[in-house]
UniProtKB/TrEMBL annotation:
Substrate binds at residues 23-25, 39, 62-65, 121, 154. The keyword Nucleotide-binding applies. It comes from Cecembia rubra. This is Phosphoglycerate kinase. Belongs to the phosphoglycerate kinase family. Monomer. It is found in: Cytoplasm. It catalyses: (2R)-3-phosphoglycerate + ATP = (2R)-3-phospho-glyceroyl phosphate + ADP. Gene3D superfamilies: Phosphoglycerate kinase, N-terminal domain.
Amino acid sequence: MTNRIKSVDNLDFKGKKALIRVDFNVPLDEHQNVTDDTRIRAAVPTIEKILKDGGSVILMSHLGRPKDGPVDKYSLRHVVSNLQKLLGKPVKFAPDCIGDEAKNLSAGLQPGEVLLLENLRFYKEEEKGDEGFAEKLSKLGDIYVNDAFGTAHRAHASTAVIAKFFNTKATGYLMLSELENADKVLEKPERPYTAIMGGAKISDKILIIERLLEKVDNLIIGGGMSYTFSKAKGGTIGDSLCEEDKLDYVLELMKKAEEKGVKIILPLDTVISKAFANDAEQGLAIAGQIPDGWMGLDIGPETRKLFAEIIKSSKTILWNGPMGVFEMSSFLHGTVAVAEAIAEATQAGSFSLIGGGDSAAAVNKFGFGDKVSYVSTGGGALLEHMEGKVLPGVAALIP
Ligand SMILES: Nc1ncnc2c1ncn2[C@@H]1O[C@H](COP(=O)(O)OP(=O)(O)OP(=O)(O)O)[C@@H](O)[C@H]1O
Ligand SMILES: O=C(O)[C@H](O)COP(=O)(O)O
């Protein structure tokens, strides 16, 4: 399918303005500093190719999930200095993604120059996939490039709708490499194939887990989502994360897995804490036996051993979502143990694919980024792609 899509490599951008959809949805700290620039870094080769050809670049992205118009917290202004450093040149900023100022700034852009537009999601039309909004955006550039693999699963104005307003549209290098690496796992995964799921966005991922049952041999569940499984099985989970309305669904899922011969592996023990804080009183509990007033914030040592054994005996590994609150030093051990086991398996010849903003950040933070096969910039996008779906942002590029 990807062979029907043009890549930036097939195009000459001399004298052209490329409107590039990037995914600069990056984590920011409380001072609005970028804490992980992986996604910005990943967009650089495409930008540089276009500039080198003698073209100019207009970048558009979303940041976070603003609900009600512009808010400084979600302004893309916060990524400008990171981008300037990575490109080694100034980047102009348009304080709105449409309107006169954006139009004038893009019209005045000279070859070799870069303009970043303000957050697309400051307009609700973006997520609605509004045609009028997409058309206004399309007026800013001559060629449309989509390099936002991380957002390719969203059928939004700037990903799925805008492409039809362009005669020339192409994937960027990042999108291409993401699709190629994911296809290595999708097409003929060497078995055993193990997926490891964790993180906090339970309802986002539970449906995807069901579809993964068609593909994998083992499904390891850790992190915040494991407590919903634990409770569904009749365990007590104290104040741990739980989606009460998914309990029946999780039971059904476990039954389906059994029928399909897929092993679901849940934690054996869990690191518990009196509060969501690094220095709160801590303890260890058997999974499903968390006392009232405590919450599970990481997998325990027995679980680390069990998960590592399964990972090391797998030939294909897909990981999305940390095993605990790895941002706090007391609860990072589970995530480190899984990253370490994946690195060892990769060293021994297995193929490993890691996705998810936080999972990618964790892998890099703990120094395993170059010890795994591929770190995707996609979270939900990677998982939906791994289900075998053609993502809307990719479908829109098919001529
Ligand atoms: N037991 C837990 N309790 C509370 N939060 C948890 C727990 N385990 C993990 N987390 C949190 O989950 C967050 C990551 O979840 P998330 O689902 O966003 O993963 P991700 O890798 O970013 O994937 P994606 O990009 O697909 O959403 C981290 O901030 C981590 O602190
Ligand atoms: O971080 C992501 O997964 C993408 O940028 C998409 O963001 P969203 O989940 O808010 O649509």
